[in-house]
């Protein structure tokens, strides 16, 4: 009972040993993360097409709920770039940006992804996320980074444009070029340049000046805050808002409101597929961040409990005016580096943000959208990593095909088609390979009891004995392949008296494959050739014993291939 | 050049050695098959919802084309029960039965499946058919048999009914019960009873009376002809047509007409999915019949060339007033038993049927539909084999699930949903299993160089050495699973100094799995544990050598597990 409670409420675990030292560590981390999160939350809300306060709201309740249910001690949950892009793409299809329907759709999307995540956690379906292969994730994140950066160019130029694919966005920006606002361009380009400089050059400069590493790191991370403050002051001082520079404007002051997602069947069915995508992608992103950080401190992450933690966070977002959230890389690393000891750091961050949403929102009235766009561009361009194309090309063409297709389709047809095609393609290529398995004819490595491919190693063989090592589990997709192959091999060698199937690499024999093995046995019997098996694994043998094959077999089962060799080579006819 | 011609025109192969003895064998087989095919072709046309002559037409050009392009010497191509059902289901959705549009849709369906089959043959995609697992095929054929038999009950009762699923059909028959025609019932029930008796009891009776086996067999097969002649005479003699018994009526006299399939994009796109289904199912049915018969005479079937043969046959059907065809089990077995020596037997059958379509069609005017329904019911009930449920239940629950789902969904939701769900479920269950692989910890079987699971065998082990045999190829779906598992195993045994991954069952390491192995290597290095590999197969090693893993590895690659054991157990720290 207590064990179960602890499983579902990890807070009971770390809460018991919470002390003053952990408290002060957590407080310091919280202050740093709060300062960093304010501009980031506003920017990601902009990216999702939502009013700026939605970004702040989405950072408060979700952080607290994750602190209660999540297992990572450093993960910081809130709006992130890729999920914001997915949100914009999904709700852009059901509602007009800026309408009340748009905000309700965002709540509904958070509610649906939260519900799905909790369900997946309760039914321990976390392994499903593994079907997003590394190459597909890498390709998807890279393409998303390009899409997100491109989507922000309109804010830097001060033009209105739209679109969810690269050609749409570029076409739209190009056709609106005449509306360009040069003051906005100056602000946007300066902010972008400044942020790039901070990211690339400030930390080495500070370190050279003798600043301690941790402080240098934190100062570097405050770059966006500096850009926000400076450009806001400039807009206010020179009344640039009156000269066509788009600014954040009025942001409601106060704690997150209580909101309700819609349960209209039309909306739910339109958002269900995007919600699945957001939950799975958000989960994969979050778990990889959490595992990376946990490994550094020899802690463990329970992926199924993570699903519940993230699910609770999203449900929280749905009822407090937010939108879909997940564990973000940048904010989690800051949290970790700033020394967060327990999830309580997250709770303190939430308090900080709540204070900001009450007291600081009037201060962002003059903040130009171009500055927010600049912070997004600089943040996401670090996600773009085309080297995965080169790495997979060198390793295996199949993985390369998955990366290239994911990147190309995400850019050309949008995030949903891109990632769905990537997953489908990975699975198809995997099935294609296993449908035409590698089968090696093996012989004895002299002086050992070890058997190897006769084409790669110098081995002993016997003309009356054919030993085939089947390098794949046998199932419906490749069962007939083996039938054809044995038929061909045996009919071309007329002195063959014994065929041994070495099953060391066969991890499964399904019913289709069983029927094929029975057919092979009968055909070989007709040709006066005996069929044997060697090195059949326990689980496979257990299953075969339930069939007629062991009774009907005109040969034997050998424990090891060497036993088979010894028996058949000496007693062979 | 000649080789290529021979590949695509197998007729060039057997045609060269054709002699008088083969000619007379083929002629005898052709006469027998022709007589059997006449009622069968009429009946299957009725099942497909087409006018009776379509069944005859679909047996003429296709047979000749298959004789030119096909590789089986005994396969008889023409309308078959399951494909007729699929045709009725597909074109029932785009046209009203009895209209000109319905016949054009049938031609278009034959054209599309023919085109698809030829394309699959040219691109050698025959292996795709393997994704229809044996359990799915068995379940599908059984459910189709039940559906087909049920669909014929209305003809036996003389009522009009419709529907493509079992509940629809039963509901429709029930609601039309008041229209029942008792004379039709007498004809239908008598014919059905007679045919069952012929099938079950006539052959043993004839054999007891000393009839030669072959003749007894052929006489048994003429049962449908006897039923047709007797009931036609009865209808004619007592003018039962005037008493409400539905009869075949006017059938146009003459050779197959030249027809054109439609290329309307609407129709093509509506029929494309059914056409894919019909091609694949027809191909699987045909190839298994052909392989069974070929094995009996030590001949070989080339599945890719079979695709071209069947494709040509369907294209032929499309241009000569037919509908989709494939190699049928019943007719092929008769052809084989009657002694057909070459595909020329098929050509002679075509001549016989052409003669029938010119001269014999007036004779079937009084043939009652109930008799045709009786021949269908008796033929398809032999397809129904529920024992596959028991067999798969005993062997593996996963295969049982595939059979049960296929049967249930085919009966409840129609043939297309049934077979598509069966295939999808088989693939999902396969992926599910490989996503959570079996990993055995192994030790040395004393006195040998063979390693086995420590839980199943009495083996030698060493406390500082953990050897894990991974029983699955490593790919994206299970890469993370292995990471977790090794982490858990190594952290629970603090004396562990060496981990060996025995890769005898690993047939593939994709890029995702490579990254996991690198992560495992780094984590173990941090824990001061060395990671080794043994029995890595040639193709897997070739691939790993293209990565950084061999350089970064803090352990070694061993050719055999015994080498690893010998090196690590004696030199172990």
Can I get a quick summary?
The longest helix of chain A is centred in the middle third of the chain and has 32 residues, at 265-296. Chain A has 24 helices and 8 strands. Chain A is elongated, with a radius of gyration of 30 Å.
How does this structure look, described?
The structure is a homodimer of 573-residue chains. Helix content of chain A is 64%, strand content 6%. Chain A is mainly α. Chain A folds into 2 domains: 2-246 and 256-398, no CATH class; 436-571, Transcription Regulator spoIIAA (2-Layer Sandwich), CATH 3.30.750.24. A 6-stranded mixed β-sheet of chain A has the order 4-3-5-6-7-8. In chain A, strands 1-2 form a two-stranded antiparallel ribbon. The longest helix of chain A is centred in the middle third of the chain and has 32 residues, at 265-296. Chains A and B meet through helix 7, helix 17, helix 19, helix 20 and helix 21 of A and helix 7, helix 17, helix 19, helix 20 and helix 21 of B.
């Amino acid at each position: 009972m207590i064990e179960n409670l602890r499983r579902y409420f990890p807070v009971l675990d770390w809460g018991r040993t919470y002390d003053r030292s952990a408290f002060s560590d957590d407080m310091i981390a919280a202050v740093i993360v709060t300062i960093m999160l304010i501009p980031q939350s506003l920017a990601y809300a902009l990216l999702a097409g939502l009013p700026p306060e939605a970004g702040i709201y989405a950072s408060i309740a979700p952080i607290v709920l994750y602190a209660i249910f999540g297992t990572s001690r450093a993960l910081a949950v809130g709006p992130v770039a890729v999920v914001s892009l997915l949100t914009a793409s999904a709700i852009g299809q059901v509602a007009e940006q800026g309408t009340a329907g748009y905000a309700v759709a965002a709540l509904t999307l958070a509610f649906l992804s939260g519900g799905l995540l909790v369900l997946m956690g309760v039914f321990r379906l976390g392994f499903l996320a593994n079907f997003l292969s590394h190459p597909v994730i890498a390709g998807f994140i890279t393409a998303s980074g390009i899409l997100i950066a491109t989507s922000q160019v309109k804010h830097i130029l001060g033009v209105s444009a739209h679109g969810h694919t690269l050609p749409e966005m570029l076409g739209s920006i190009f056709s609106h070029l005449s509306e360009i606002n040069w003051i906005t361009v100056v602000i946007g380009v300066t902010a972008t340049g400044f942020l790039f400089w901070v990211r690339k050059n400030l930390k080495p400069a500070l370190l050279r000046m003798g600043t301690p590493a941790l402080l240098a790191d934190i100062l570097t991370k405050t770059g966006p805050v500096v850009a926000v403050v400076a450009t806001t002051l400039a807009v206010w001082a020179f009344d640039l808002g009156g000269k066509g520079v788009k600014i954040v404007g009025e942001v409601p002051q106060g704690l997150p409101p209580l909101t309700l997602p819609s349960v209209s069947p039309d909306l739910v069915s339109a958002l269900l597929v995007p919600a699945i995508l957001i939950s799975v992608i958000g989960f994969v992103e979050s778990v990889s961040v959490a595992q990376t950080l946990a490994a550094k401190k020899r802690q463990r992450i329970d992926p199924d409990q993570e699903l519940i933690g993230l699910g609770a966070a999203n449900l929280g977002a749905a009822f407090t005016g937010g939108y879909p959230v997940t564990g973000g890389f940048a904010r989690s690393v800051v949290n970790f580096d700033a020394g967060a000891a327990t999830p309580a750091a997250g709770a303190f961050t939430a308090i900080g943000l709540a204070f900001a949403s009450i007291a600081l929102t009037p201060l962002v009235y003059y903040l130009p959208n171009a500055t927010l766009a600049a912070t997004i561009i600089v943040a996401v361009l670090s996600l773009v990593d085309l080297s995965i194309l080169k790495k997979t090309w060198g390793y295996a063409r199949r993985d390369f095909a998955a990366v290239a297709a994911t990147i190309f389709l995400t850019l050309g047809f949008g995030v949903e088609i891109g990632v769905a095609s990537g997953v489908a393609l990975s699975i198809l290529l995997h099935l294609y390979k296993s449908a035409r398995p590698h089968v090696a004819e093996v012989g004895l490595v002299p002086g050992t009891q070890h058997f190897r491919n006769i084409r790669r190693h110098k081995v002993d063989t016997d003309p009356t004995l054919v030993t085939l090592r089947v390098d794949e589990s046998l199932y419906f997709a490749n069962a007939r392949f083996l039938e054809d192959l044995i038929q061909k091999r045996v009919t071309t060698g007329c002195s063959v008296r014994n065929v041994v199937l070495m099953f060391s690499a066969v991890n499964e024999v399904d019913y289709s494959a069983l029927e094929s093995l029975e057919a092979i046995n009968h055909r070989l019997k007709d040709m006066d050739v005996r069929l044997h098996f060697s090195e059949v694994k326990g689980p496979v043998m257990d299953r075969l014993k339930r069939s007629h094959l062991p009774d009907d077999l005109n040969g034997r089962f050998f424990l090891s291939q060497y036993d088979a060799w010894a028996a058949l080579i000496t007693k062979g006819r």
